[in-house]
Amino acid sequence: MLQCWLLSNGKLSPAAETEANVRVYVRPDERERRELLDRWQIDEHTLTSSLDPDELARLEFEADHVAMIYKRPRNYSSEERFLFKVSSCGMFVYPDSMLIVLPEDATLFTGRLFARVGSLPELMLKCIFASIHHFLEHLRVINAVSDALEEQINAAMDNKYLLNLFSLEKSLVYYLNAVNSNGKLIERMKLNAPKLGLSGELVELLDDLLIENNQCKEQAEIYSNILAGLMDARVSIVSNNLNLLIKALTVITIAIMLPTFVVSLFSMNVPIPFQEHPWAFWAVLTLSLSSIAMVKLFLWWKRW
Fold this sequence. Notes:
Elements: E1 2-8, E2 11-14, E3 22-26, H1 30-38, H2 44-50, E4 58-61, E5 66-73, E6 86-93, E7 98-102, H3 120-153, H4 160-191, H5 193-196, H6 200-265, H7 280-301
Parallel strand pairs: 3-7
Antiparallel strand pairs: 1-2, 1-3, 4-5, 5-6, 6-7
Helix pairs in contact: 3-4, 3-6, 4-6, 6-7
């Protein structure tokens, strides 16, 4: 699917294909892939890497354009079961046009960040900036979900919530790797700022990008270390909750067993002492209640 935009007078607006200087290819089909390879002279390996979620971020200088692959979070859905994944995005910047290749549909040019865009190199940097903000938003969501799961684990006795936490921990590993890869890309962009045609103002924006990305990386590391460090404790909480349940069931079983034993003993179909006594029923009932009181007194003494 092709989306066409026109960057003019500092603003991005939808445009016809003949007028557009910014083109976004979402899950390009075979015809669009041939157009990218033949008309725009994009390397086939680089194009394939743009759609590969396992590809690392990188920067390449071709004869007539700059090829760049950076990492961005995938759109989360409930079917993922708390697993946040990462996808790749390809950007190809020409002197008078720009191509973006995405493996999934995404909203790129929204928010205050894109209210004013002066040039294609600035748009390139702001796309990476938006990706970093997207990572930060997902990290805040992961932290909130983690706190909610911790509260549920405190009363849980099965592995469902623990498995969700494992998924979050796995997501943070993916995010940390992606953010670190983006950091390497930004550093290389800074070293090659003149070749990228970046002005002094855009170099300052590049410095801001590097700072934001480092903060995102540190935040991901903190969340990842917290989840990994406390996972054993959370497993112990679930095991302890199960032990408390078994203990409570054992106490209930003992409390029921003693009066049942007393009643069963005096219910045998054989001659027993005092069976003809007029107070025999009340004596057996009193003995049963006394056994319950003894169990309760014993549990109180043991502080169970």
